[in-house]
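Input (Putative ribosome biogenesis protein C8F11.04):
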Amino acid sequence: MAPSKEVAALGSNEIVSISHDQTLKASKALLAHIKKAAKESAEDPSSKKNLLADAEDDVTADTPVWLTLTTKRHIADKSRLQPGKIVLPHPLHADDEDLSVCLITADPQRAYKNIVASDEFPADLRKRIGRVIDVTKLKAKYSQYEAQRKLFSEHDIFLGDERIINRLPKILGKTFYKTTTKRPVPVNLQAKVPKVNGKRGKRDKKTASGENNVNAGTPAQIAKEVNKAVGSALVSLSPSTNTAVRIGSASWTADQIADNVDAVATALVEKAPRRPPCPSG
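Output:
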């Protein structure tokens, strides 16, 4: 049985909420500080400048905003190679037209290339998908370190079919998994199991995992999964008391940052280990 991707909540079920007003106040202060620092850097004659940049707005647009959760105990018992996804009120990369996504699929890749190229697949999302490759061709073409480095540099986000995601660490190695920057994010590319009497039936694992069975979702289903993964906050858990999650960019409004902080903090705190309740009596 494969290990669960979820982190079990321990101890008391009581969740301590954070004040949205305080979060909004902190977001305003942080954004003001970033913009002030960018302006001072732009006006400093001794600082290195990008000749193609257009004032300090270009600097703040690319500055990520992170939320750090600190716990008294390790938030996970071991490192998780697959990042978890937290859906955000304000998705990441929504306005990044130059974003390049590499979609790693189960075999055969031609089926998924046809889906991405179909008229039913959103044109704006299609432009973002720079490569569709199945796991067999990935292993054949990118087994060498230099080839892996080239692939790593060519795309901003890597998505992996849930059916083959566990095979990717061995194929892509330390080039992708030494840091959490571009670890492949799991996505469900399979067709949905039809509902019976209002309930969704169980998937036939033997049929779903067959080498010659594509069992791909519809263009709309796959597009929804890709958009969800690209826009979500990604959480890479490890045996540590600190967990950092990107929640936005410095070019966003304080309200957008605060909304995403609330969503991520709530999701993380629900899964964070807590002190077990004291025995009564």
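Residues 1-12, 206-211 have pLDDT under 50 and may be disordered.
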